[in-house]
Amino acid sequence: DERRLKERALDEAPIGITISDATDPEQPMIYMNDSFEEITGYPPDEVIGVNHRFLQGPETDHEKVAEVAEALEEKRGIQTVLRNYTRDGTEFWNQISISPILDEHGELSHFVGFQMDVTERKRAQQELVNERESLDRVIDRVNGLVSDVTSALVRAESRDEVEQLVTERLGTGGEYTAAWLGRYDETTDRVDITEQAGGRTF
């Protein structure tokens, strides 16, 4: 009963579980649960008896694959995230954790692997990285703009020159398409442009 309970727990676990024969140089898979098939799309009759490398593809990180191979060669566990491929060729990020299993004599007999599809988590992390990089670029441009405008204010010897230098900086610095500066005339209730720069005429 205890053994059947353990087998049922493996079969119905919400993450992919596989067991490989560590005594065979090819380390073929001898067991996979239902979740592994759900994650990868591979049925048991196509993968039992073969090595896990069938999940690899053109964008799989070969350095990480080498790290996994080194860990298995040294008979130690490892955890990493690999870009893998489902049966229909769809990319997914696979968080894998592999642990050695020893027999009653303390000799390595099997490897048990746990697989989890973390594609959504990786996508969210990448979006955060992209947003952070975009924000950094904006901050750099703003800092550059503030520095240039401050420099123009220091160099200018009159209000007219301040207006000219600042408008030129804003209109030709790359941050904006064009810039203009005007003065409000209360008698006509309109703004008259005194300086403008850039690719657009106001």
Quick overview:
This protein is of the alpha+beta class. The protein contains six helices and seven strands.
- Give the tally of β-strands: 7
| Helix and strand element order | HEEHHHEEEHHEE
Mean pLDDT level: 87
Which structural class best describes the helix and strand composition? alpha+beta
Uncertain residue segments: none
The largest pleated sheet is described as: 5 strands, antiparallel
Strand order of the largest sheet: 2-1-5-4-3
Share of helix, binned: 40-55%
- Span of the ends, CA to CA: 85 Å
Global geometry: rod-shaped
Subunit organisation of the chains: single chain
In DSSP terms (H or I, runs of 4 or more residues), the helix count works out at 6
> For the CA atoms, what is the radius of gyration?
32 Å
Q: Beta-strand percentage?
A: 25-35%
